[in-house]
UniProtKB/TrEMBL annotation:
The gene is SRMS. Residues 231-482 form the Protein kinase domain. Its EC number is 2.7.10.2. Residues 120-212 form the SH2 domain. This is Tyrosine-protein kinase. InterPro entries: Kinase-like_dom_sf (IPR011009), Non-receptor_tyrosine_kinases (IPR050198), Prot_kinase_dom (IPR000719), Protein_kinase_ATP_BS (IPR017441), Ser-Thr/Tyr_kinase_cat_dom (IPR001245), SH2 (IPR000980), SH2_dom_sf (IPR036860), SH3-like_dom_sf (IPR036028). Keywords: ATP-binding, Cell projection, Cytoplasm, Kinase, Lipoprotein, Myristate, Nucleotide-binding, Phosphoprotein, SH2 domain, SH3 domain, Transferase, Tyrosine-protein kinase.
């Protein structure tokens, strides 16, 4: 049983919550020892819940505070939303007075991908590529770009050419979501930060003159194609719907990788090229990273990072999976929602979100796999090879009946995935045919609450299965709620 030491972080958190239940305890220091949730096996370590930088919101309309609790905002004000409170959000201004208070939720909107329109924004390129681009002939001293940080996808790096060298400045995020290079001055958005350092370059020590001149299209054309001989196949990991998956070594990179083999006759060449171009630009710690391709010759190799524990479906059913406790399960679901929120921001639809398409690594790290793959494969192959695998059970009625796939149909599938997680791999609608499932769903039936599943988790599933797709929650919302549940479970179950 738990023992209170009165000084460690979890005990302080509990003590705080007893005294100030309305206030959120926010530990500042890291625990000295890596905290651990024990199972009977006693060997599963999960990280301390991460306090994600808040999302950036903007006020849609002017709002005049009517009481001290409320916050006056002007249309366009940049805000950080601290929490939702019924029809209101507790928001903090990111510029000027930095006050906080309640604003009607319908008066604010989440800003998405707002940097894509800037010429200096290069998104997902690594340090090496940034240097190559900036040092190219067409750029001069003072050329600069902003890219997503390689180590933390919530943060960015400003790369600036200074004569024949490139300097890199880390752009960090504060806990309220503002951006800063030096903690002395922070900004609501990246473009405000860039604008400031263009005018005040002395504080950076190097001028920002012009955005890097390289065309992004040229960067995108860079070869991902790798010689087949650079990969040595080791062992077969599984037989997927579209071909075999192998563990291999990428000899030139000295890296263990996974290779998905597709038969050329099964792939739609036009879609393949389009989708693979899109996949290359996706980069998130909760998405399986595409590493290389061998698309000339047979079979096509799709090379991705290797996940040690295989698919979530198999993992949940394994002896180790059967030992997982609620905190582990919620931690995994929250990671899937995080990866899907990244796709949601880019309006990318997965179309086949299910536990079989989530991969598990060490320390219960979960990543979404096979996004975009559904469109590469010829429809006839896709449906034919899967008719026995019943994807209908994961598919929203509007998508199954009328092919209306959307981010919201992915949210439906997430609800079913959550059911799979909470039942540790049970087949949804077990014993029913696809036809019966569709009939049941259209008549309003929904999967029942799994045994030992808390009511607030089942409530999330039901929201995902709202027959009106627009009323289903967003993946950002799902991630934030699951993350919050994980935080409270973690601090209550950790052994000290
Ligand atoms: P799929 O074609 O995605 O259904 O994959 C078939 C099986 O191969 C999965 O169930 C996993 O066990 C395994 N697998 C696929 N991709 C990977 C990967 N990146 N790392 C490890 N195992 C994988």
């Amino acid at each position: 049983m738990e023992r209170c030491c009165r000084t460690c972080m979890p005990c302080l958190a509990r003590l705080w919550n007893c005294i100030w239940p309305e206030q959120h305890y926010s530990p500042r220091a890291e625990p000295e020892e890596p905290a651990e949730i024990r199972t009977v096996a006693g060997d599963l370590r999960v990280p301390e819940p991460k306090r994600r930088p808040a999302q950036l919101y903007a006020a849609l309309f002017d709002f005049e505070a009517r009481s001290e609790e409320e916050l006056t905002v002007k249309e366009g004000d940049k805000l950080s939303v601290i929490e939702k409170r019924g029809d209101y959000v507790l928001a903090k201004k990111l510029t000027g007075s930095l006050e906080s208070g309640l604003v009607p939720a319908s008066y604010v909107t989440l800003l998405k991908d707002e940097f894509a329109k800037y010429k200096w924004y290069y998104g997902n390129i690594n340090r090496q590529k940034a240097e190559k681009l900036l040092l190219a002939q067409q750029n001069k001293s003072g050329s600069f770009l902003v890219r997503i940080s390689e180590s933390n996808s919530d943060e960015y790096t400003l790369s600036v050419r200074n004569e024949s060298k490139v300097l890199h400045f880390r752009i960090q995020r504060s806990s309220i979501g503002s951006y800063y290079v030096s903690y002395k001055i922070s900004f609501a958005t990246l473009d405000e930060l860039v604008g400031y350092y263009q005018k005040n370059y002395k504080s950076l020590g190097v001028p920002l003159v012009l955005p890097c001149a390289q065309q992004r299209e040229l960067y995108d054309m860079e070869p991902w194609e790798q010689p087949r001989e650079d990969f040595t196949l080791h062992k077969k990991l599984g037989q997927g719907h579209f071909g075999e998956v192998w563990e291999a070594v990428w000899t030139t990179e000295k890296k263990r990788v996974a290779i998905k083999m597709l038969k050329q006759e099964d792939t739609r060449q036009d879609e393949f090229v389009k989708e693979v171009q899109a996949l290359k630009s996706l980069h998130h710690p909760k998405l399986i990273q595409l590493l290389a391709l061998c698309s000339r010759g047979e079979p096509v190799y799709i090379v991705t990072e290797l996940m040690t524990k295989g698919s979530l479906k198999n993992y949940l059913e394994s002896p180790e999976g059967q030992l997982l406790i609620l905190a582990h399960l919620i931690y995994m679901a929250s990671q899937v929602a995080e990866g899907m929120a990244y796709l949601e921001d880019r309006s990318i639809v997965h179309r086949d979100l299910a536990a079989r398409n989530i991969l598990v690594g060490d320390n219960l790290v979960c990543k979404v796999a096979d996004f975009g793959l559904a469109r590469i494969i010829k429809d006839s192959v896709y449906t034919a090879s899967r008719s026995t695998k019943i994807p209908v059970r994961w598919t929203a009625p509007e998508a199954a009946l009328h092919q209306r796939f959307s981010v919201k149909s992915d949210v439906w599938s997430f609800g079913v995935l959550l059911y799979e997680i909470m039942t540790k791999g049970k087949m949804p609608y077990d014993g029913k045919t696809n036809k019966e499932v569709l009939e049941l769903l259209t008549s309003g039936y929904r999967l029942p609450c799994p045994g030992r599943c808390p009511s607030d988790v089942y409530r999330i599933m039901k929201e995902c299965w709202n027959s009106e797709s627009a009323k289903r929650p967003s993946f950002h919302d799902l991630h934030s709620r699951l993350n919050q549940m994980y935080s409270s479970l973690y601090y209550n179950t950790v052994q000290v």
